[in-house]
Write a structure and sequence with these properties.
- The chain is mainly alpha-helical.
- The protein has one domain (about 5-25, about 30-170): Arp2/3 complex 21 kDa subunit ARPC3 (Orthogonal Bundle), CATH 1.10.1760.
- The protein has eight helices and two strands; from the N terminus they run H-E-E-H-H-H-H-H-H-H.
- The chain has a two-stranded antiparallel ribbon with strand order 1-2.
- Helix 5 (about 95-125) packs antiparallel against helix 6 (about 135-150).
- The longest helix is centred in the middle third of the chain and has 28 residues, at about 95-125.
């Protein structure tokens, strides 16, 4: 079983973060949030290829950079970070691509959306129902997760990004 080196993980993290930041500018404004299905794509790919710690760190860094550049909101933090972490944990536990997508939807679309309420209310000053973010966050994470799932099912992508034999066998089962 061949493991990725730390340098490879950091390099891929940089690519995923850049992808999330650059394409995060094409977000969909909805109320106080700017929905970014591409962040969910990055969360799922990072969770599967790099693991939960790197996926979580990547989500934090991408959200931070998007906020610094003014193309994101503070709501990016609870949504993307929780989603990336749970996607990674689900993938490590169940070893199936679809479980990472489910983890992303639960983490971003449900838990992250609920945690976004106090952020919106107290830090951004936006009032709304506690569940006001659940539907938009869930739709965004479902779309991004599905695109990531399909992307990782492409044989050449699987070969390049997921290079250990155990993961290759698991992908064939999925």
């Amino acid at each position: 079983m061949k493991q990725k080196s730390t340098a490879q993980k950091i390099a891929l993290s940089g690519v995923l973060i850049a992808f999330a930041v650059i394409f995060g500018t094409f977000s969909i404004p909805l109320g106080a949030a700017r929905l970014s299905p591409l962040q969910s794509f990055v969360n799922v790919v990072g969770a599967i290829v790099l693991g939960p710690v790197y996926a979580l760190a990547n989500a934090f860094i991408a959200a931070l950079i998007r906020n610094i550049l003014g193309v994101g909101t503070l709501l990016a933090f609870p949504g993307s970070i929780i989603g990336a972490g749970i996607a990674g944990i689900f993938y490590v536990k169940f070893k199936k691509l679809i479980t990472a997508v489910i983890g992303e939807v639960i983490g971003t679309g449900i838990i992250g959306a609920i945690v976004a309420y106090p952020v919106a209310k107290f830090l951004i000053g936006k009032e709304g129902a506690v569940y006001a973010f659940v539907i938009p966050f869930a739709l965004s994470s479902i779309f991004g997760g599905i695109v990531a799932y399909l992307f990782l099912k492409i044989p050449v992508i699987t070969k390049v990004l997921i290079d250990n034999q155990d993961n290759k066998k698991l992908l064939k089962k999925n």
